[in-house]
Amino acid sequence: MSNSDFDIIFRGDIVFGHQLADVKLKLQQLFKADAAKIDSLFTGRPVPLKRNLDEATANKYRDVLLKSGAMVEICASDKSPANAPVATRPARPKEPESSRWTLAPVGSYLSPVAQVTSQPVAPIDTSGLSLRPAEGNLVDSAETSHEINAVVIAPDLGLAAVGEDLMSADEKLELPLVEIELEDWEIAAVGSDLLTQDERPVVVPVAVANSDFSLAPTGSDLGQLKLDVKPVAPDISKLRLAE
């Protein structure tokens, strides 16, 4: 195969995300052709845009066309669809999917009727309900809870001046003064014993015979009470190792 055996084939497809009108305008600027010439490329048939190119030049043309939004492919010239009999097929619209979207009227169902799940209607007993006039209470007097008006005695209160005594002289309690004789008291030196020898309580030491006591080795059983704990046997029959 020589170095000039590649064709650029265009079938009318556009790159996802591009608008058809923008792609046609870019192709007009790229090939310096009119709108009718560019529209003839969008028939759904394979059209060779460039023939007999080397591989590097063909890749360069493809990159430029892809940036313009035209979906092209590189084929060997002897296997190019333009050189083989091509079955005609109807032209397919190239408008993006969003161009076929519309706004549904307000209140319309967005799902088909077959996909709408019917909800059961809960029975409500309205036999005891009735309409009353717009004015007045909605409940009878027998249904209204009567509140007891509490009598609150509010004496003539006023604000006292800042720093004033809030209790009058006749409201204060007279506390008797305790007479303490301090004639024999004096301050002891720091660290002195505040109790004399005869003021100290006599503590008789308890005689403990420790001749039979000894230290047990670490970890020995000292006869302490042990908790009766039964071992738990978990059921692992349904457990398995994940791969």
SSE topology sketch:
Elements: E1 6-14, H1 20-31, H2 35-39, E2 47-53, H3 55-68, E3 70-76
Antiparallel strand pairs: 1-2, 1-3
Protein described:
The chain has helices at 20-31, 35-39, 55-68, and strands spanning 6-14, 47-53, 70-76. It is largely without helices or strands and 243 residues long. It has a domain at 6-83: Ribosomal protein L7/L12, C-terminal domain/Adaptor protein ClpS (Ribosomal Protein L30, Chain: A). The longest helix is centred in the first third of the chain and has 14 residues, at 55-68. The chain is elongated, with a radius of gyration of 53 Å.
| The named CATH superfamily of one domain | Ribosomal protein L7/L12, C-terminal domain/Adaptor protein ClpS
Discrete helix count: 3
Tell me which CATH architecture of one domain applies here: 2-Layer Sandwich
Name the CATH class of one domain: Alpha Beta
Radius of gyration from CA coordinates: 53 Å
The secondary-structure element order is EHHEHE
User: What is the arithmetic mean of pLDDT?
Assistant: 79
Fraction of residues in β-strands: 5-15%
First-residue to last-residue Cα separation: 51 Å
Strand order of the largest sheet: 2-1-3
Uncertain ranges:
85-93
